[in-house]
Amino acid sequence: MKNQFLSGMSVPNIMVVDDIPANLKILDDILKSEGYKIRPVTNGELALRTAEKEKPDLILLDIMMPGMDGFEVCRRLKENPGLKDIPVIFISALGETAHIVKALAFGGVDYINKPFQAEEVIARVNTHLKLSRQSKELQNLNATKDKFFSIIAHDLRSPFIGFLGLTKIMAEGSQNLTRDEIKHYTECMSDSASNLFQLLENLLEWSLLQRGLKGFEPVSCLLMPLVMDSIQPFMASANTKEVVIRYEIPGDLEIFADTSMLASIIRNLASNSIKFTPKGGTVTIAAKSVHDNLFEISVKDTGVGMDSTMVKNLFRLDVQTNRRGTEGEPSSGLGLNLTKDFVEKHGGKIWVESIESQGSTFYFTIPRHPGSKEKAAERHDFAAAETQNPMKKLKILIAEDDKTSDFLLTIAVKKISNEILHAKNGAEAVAVCFENPDIDLILMDIAMPFMKGYEATSNIRTFNKDVIIIAQTAHIILGERNRAIEAGCNDYISKPIDQKELLNMIRKHFK
Fold it and tell me: If exposure means fewest CB atoms within 10 Å of the residue's CB, which of 273, 280, 282, 461 is most exposed?
């Protein structure tokens, strides 16, 4: 049965807490039939640890459990700032009014009596997931609105007031001003105009992005010229502050990105670094390869740095982290929010490392150009390497629901295997892997019935940390590689699969 609630959204993760395996199995069957991801947990202590690690979207919680009961679990969840907003539905054989009232008082959003009906469980779960999603959307909208009004009321208004004041002085008293005073005032006006322009440009781009009107058109391009063009508007400010700009970017480094978005990312990070670096400091923009399909770009400064609290809240819309630069330069904080959105639009990640009074380094990842020479070279070295240094024969599990894909993969890995096992869905893959702890390699399709590849990978990692898992999928989505790695895969390859590329990737993990 297709769950209409899940249409157009990511699949919610539901944690089910009950000490009776039969109850877990029943609820697992009911909810998985609706398309949900289920995380069964057998006791309260484990539930708290799992919730902290996985942040489920909803929790179904039994009351009568050995050790820590459901009331205490819920109380601790609601005391944790990072978990308190997760909706908890109690599900128990304790049907007296006093128990129901107590459950709601401890923070539960609903109560289901055992024995329960499948239709009731599904209806209540759908309702509270929908309410939770709407609540988060409302919080984001309010944060966005507050940020926008803050910028309009202060960050945009204040520079205009200063700019108008300078123009008034110039208009009314220019005949009494010295050449040096006129030069000083015009430089101040130029700085104000530049700051206003960048703020307005960020506001426009942010507005388009929030409304879904910002297009995404990645192309292959050289990084160095784009970086040089992007920071040119801030070179005057850097020269005034005697901040040295350094580059550690290979001249022939080619990436795959939306040039408008990438230019905005570089602009915002570089201007921030210049803004918060005192006179005589340095800003270094660097890039290096960190994966077969990813480059890491960094912007490092010797500026004022940040404390751990500011770093933690830096990309949050609902927390004010903006402050003035070392020369009093204004800052709205909007540029970093925009930068984060643009990086994630590329399927990348952004993070920062900072030490107070020593400086900050912003890092983000961006896709490598798919047709790069390095990649092409990698595809042809497997045969030579295999001749010089033969790889051991592997026990391989192919998890693939499509018969043709399974057949092609079998042919591709036949000569490097001593045994090939097969699974048609994620649940089978988990079972086969559990029964065969000596498996060397799993080729894991992502889009399989019953249990998806990412969920199967997460389950396998609970009892086997060493097996090499390569995700393979026909989904051409930026960021899919990151999702695979986060789920526990060691690598990722796109369909249609190039046999030489696959063999070379396998060899890389079994040198």
Answer: 280
